[in-house]
Amino acid sequence: MTEPPIDDRRLEQLVDLIVQLAAGNLGARLEASPARDSVDAVITGINLLADELDTIYRTLEERVAERTAELDQAKRDLERLALYDALTGLANRTLLGDRMRLAIVWAERGARPPSALLLDLDEFKTINDGLGHGTGDLILVEVARRLTHVVRDTDTVARLGGDEFAILLPDVSEDEALRIAERALAELSKPYVVGDRTVWSGASIGVCFGLRGQSADLLLRDADTAMYAAKASGKGTVEVFRPEMHHTARARLQIASELGAAIDDNQLRLDYQPIIDLQAGEIVGVEALVRWQHPTRGRLMPADFIAVAEDSGHIIELGHWVLDTVIERLGRSPRVASDPRFKAYVNLLPVEVRWSGLVDLIADRLHKHKVPAGRLVLEISETGLMTGDVGGLESLIALRQLGVGTAIDDFGTGYSSISYLRRLPVDMVKVDQSLIADITTDEAQVRFVGAILHLIEAAGLDAVVEGIESVDQMDRLVALGCRYGQGYHLGRPAAWKNAILPARSPRTARP
Ligand code: C2E
Ligand code: MG
Ligand code: MG
């Protein structure tokens, strides 16, 4: 069989097809002729190859598209990581900084300068330590949600780390900024429900109204200073930055840095203030009050350094020193040996009660100095007990089992109910000075204090009224049946040997 002559036109079409395919037109095809000869075989082969190529090419294109999308996503993820907080989805410090600089540029072009809020949760550490980090995380997420709801669309809520948040308010009036701060405070003061638990953690908020030309760093630093002032002024408040706050902040830093050495170098002192049985006119104990004999600044009072000691963590060491000194003093005092009623009262902050070594430390020192446990009473403020700041009540219960007394200090400044008092592991209530300040002029106040004293008695607890400054106040209290008192009129805080002098009659005592 001989092949029929090759048709030039079909060869030409075939060449053309190859050229098109080579040029990247993978859709090009040539139809085979009815002849089904060897040219048609080549055409069919090339069509098949073209199909194959086309498929490979499409798959490749799809893969490239997929990889590109993945790369884009990774880039966005990286951006998120770099600019947003992973837990809450809020802006992080970097993005906040960018937005601040932007808000400052707007202000240069005529908008009002931005304001900054700095927020720190007051009880977060207690919750986190007590209920676990999972719970802590849930609360942080909820805080983020609440804050996002109180701001305007143009504002930026950021998490700076831990339980610290910031809000940038671009182009804002001072009134508006304050209103947002107050709303944030109100939102954060609401309870958090986590599983079957309800917990509270208020916040302290510092506000800095930006000035024209103020840098982002300074704006944030000043809001931070104001936040510390809010913490120092009793937490749960909003404070607006004032320049003099820097002095206070610097002084606090200075004090914190010197406190450790002060304890080691024996610069702390104790004064003791007598607690008097008003009916019998006898001293029944003394409250130990710490002072710092500072080498250059003179005598510093607790208000100057206790809060700093708490923030800086020195309070545990300071508390050790106080307990050590008081128990040692009790152990070698003939007065204590001869008077079985005589007790020493020591103040503890919630964080000291939470410290896990407290019970062992006290048991050890009592044993070492041969002091019966009943001679020591620990005072914890009402607010500390109410907010659950002391952690569990286990250590108080353990101390009472040891025989150590416990007292609620500054009663009347918090919100405890008498029924709550009865459930607390305490023996004694120290009624705050503020309750009796007007007792000689205000009859309603007299009735109020009388009712409180009755309720304390009905709860089976002893009452000591603090801050008695005059004979008139004392007379009023005695008439109300008040048994124990403390105050400048009865004896000022003094060195041990002066504080425990046999009681003068409170009636004739002079401030
Ligand atoms: P506090 O426990 O309520 O102690 C009573 C405070 O009132 C003392 O102030 C005392 O000097 C003062 N005071 C007593 N009588 C009167 C009075 O008639 N009128 C007036 N206006 N004040 C009177 P101080 O010594 O400055 O102590 C302040 C607070 O510092 C104490 O309040 C206590 O909470 C805390 N503190 C003192 N020593 C320690 C300590 O060793 N550890 C801890 N954690 N806190 C302490
Ligand atoms: Mg006290
Ligand atoms: Mg007190």
Any overview of this molecule?
This protein is an alpha/beta fold and 511 residues long. 50% of the residues lie in helices and 18% in strands. The chain is built from 19 helices and 16 strands. The chain has helices spanning 8-22, 38-83, 93-108, 124-131, 133-150, 174-189, 216-232, 245-264, 302-312, 315-331, 334-338, 350-354, 358-368, 382-386, 394-402, 418-423, 443-458, 471-479, 496-499; strands at 115-121, 156-161, 164-169, 192-194, 197-199, 203-209, 238-240, 268-277, 282-294, 298-300, 343-348, 376-381, 405-411, 428-431, 462-465, 484-485. It has an eight-stranded mixed β-barrel. It has a five-stranded mixed sheet with strand order 2-3-1-6-7. Helix 10 runs parallel beside helix 13. The relative contact order is 0.06. The mean pLDDT is 90. It binds ligand C2E and magnesium ion (MG) (2 copies). One magnesium ion is lined by residues 409-410, 430, 466. Residues 287, 347, 379, 409 line the site of one magnesium ion (MG).
